[in-house]
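Posted in: Protein Modeling Q&A

I'm a second-year student putting together a small comparison for a lab meeting, and my supervisor asked me to include a predicted structure for TNFR-Cys domain-containing protein. I've never done this before, so apologies if this is the wrong subforum. The sequence is pasted below exactly as I got it from our records. If anyone can share the structure token output, I'd also love a short note on what stands out.
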Amino acid sequence: MLWPSLLPLVLLAARAARVAGVAASPRTFMHTDPATGSSVECARCAPGNYLRSSCTATRGSVCARCPSGSFTELWNYISKCLRCGACGHNQVVKTPCAADSDCRCECKPGYYKRDYDMCHPHRECPAGQGVLSKGTADEDTACRACSNGTFSAAVSAHEACSLHQSCDAPGTQLLLKGSSWHDSVCTSCTELRSRDGADYLKEILPPFFVHQKIHIKRLRRILQKLLSESGQKRGASGLDRADLHARINAWIASAKAGQIREVPAILTRMGADGAAERLRNKLQSIDSNLNELCDLRNEVDVIVMSGRK
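Accepted answer (user: helix_wrangler)
Welcome! Here is the predicted structure, written out as tokens:
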């Protein structure tokens, strides 16, 4: 039994032996001259060629170039070149087939090699995680959780975490602190009387549904309920997750503040109690902060007016 520490050395030695064997492949072969019956040593054909006719006691081997679509990679005495290979599923040609080499394949963009050279899709980082390193033809995407002060609102194999907006522009105030899956929500004094708290919740609803990872069957029922509550009759059955999120986002974009406020209750009726509670807490936080900001602004107005008197 080989010691574990020696196994890598043995494997390396075996690989080196194979490489050396290819490099030192024989350049001749023995052949029986049909005219004399004697054994003669014939030259092999170089890579990119095949043996058209063997040597005899009076003439040498006759080689010919491999026709298009075929190849030989070694010194040989075969009578026909090998047919060029074809790339497999989700693969593209990296190096075309040539007379002296078969084609080389690699995974097409968006895929990487795994499990007996099969190509698999790159992993997509979920909302709340960003891309640490993008996938290649040989490596999968690497993800990492967004650190404090950063977020990722999308499911993506390309996007890194982004910094929360700072809400430090003149007249702008922080309304809702950002999390790992949504940006900070800012407001300004001019918006306080013109917008409902649900209008601000609307900004984070698309990434909210992505982040919650609600089971697809329940997500279909939620979409159907949202549509029916809005008087729409389009069905949601058969839609995949990407289509469901697209349809939910379209509903959010057209929904009024009152409809947005009903979303937590709809989630509860559809059995998504945890998601409903988290969304309700977000809305309560927004409403509470809006009231505080409004009260603060009114106090400032009173002080200014008192000063004018």
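A couple of things worth pointing out for your meeting: The longest helix spans residues 273-308. The chain has seven helices and 16 strands.
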